[in-house]
Here is the input.
Amino acid sequence: MKIRIIALIVMSMAIQSLMAQKYVTKTGRIRFYSDTPMEKIEGVNQQVNSAFDLATGQMVFKVLMKSFGFEKALMQEHFNENYAESDKFPNAIFKGTVAGLQSIDFLKDGKHNVEVGGDLTIHGVTQKVKTTATLESRGGKIIGHAVFNVNPKDYGINIPTAVVKQIAETIEVTVDATYDKMN
Amino acid sequence: MKKNPLRVIVAIVIIALASGIYVWKYLYNKPHPDYLTIPADVSVDANTLFNAFVADQALAESTYNGKVVEITGVPSGIEQSDSLQFVVFVFRQGDFGDEGIRCALHPRAVKHDFHLTPDKPVTLKGYLTGFNGSDVIFEKCSFVE
Here is the structure.
């Protein structure tokens, strides 16, 4: 009888552990980088919310535009007022899925290449995006990393002719997120 | 009286140089606001601030986003990321776990030996960047003594 009770407890604990496969971070880091011969512009946001469900592969990022910090105050002003229009569009959101998770054992430490695809909304405009990323399982955490490009024009962000040589046509976006298992 | 063309050219060059230096120094390279010394635009209780965003996000955004806001409340904890220290106020549980207010401390306001006193309120001041659906986010925060 005792053995049955212990087995039941162990089983229920195992089931609970399997169900709790949601990982979250509130300190994700997103960097965008524009490189032209005239100017290099870098914006960094270190308070990015992201959740990642291992069971379904669903992934979401919520990014506050005003949390991007720049080297120069003028760059930050122009970014918020002229390009991102952060008062009108305060958030950027990505909702997507990570493909091929079934073949990965996240209980073992290791780094894996994955495909991430979904809808990216910036400046109120939603576009499909797809990129390769790495997910690393280390010490019970999952560390995500991805680099992809966005074109401001695709999101209805028009660069005035006067500064067109200072802002790259394609902006490099780097995403780093260290996820903790949600209790 | 006939103007000396050389003097006119020199004057134009000096004006152009002065304008260039002014634009370079005071516009292009103007410093970020010093969030440690800048006075707060508004002071509010931490719980009231969070509830304002939950009740009417659009109204709260127009009231607080982009402003230097001073909040008072009892923090739930201090968190550390690779490069930042956060003072966290938790008011509810949601999709992202604990939800409330997160204040990233200004590098010059980080206290490595800081310990929270249970139930003791603190006052913080920082640049409020918005509400991401789960937390009200502050950057460049500092303690108000």
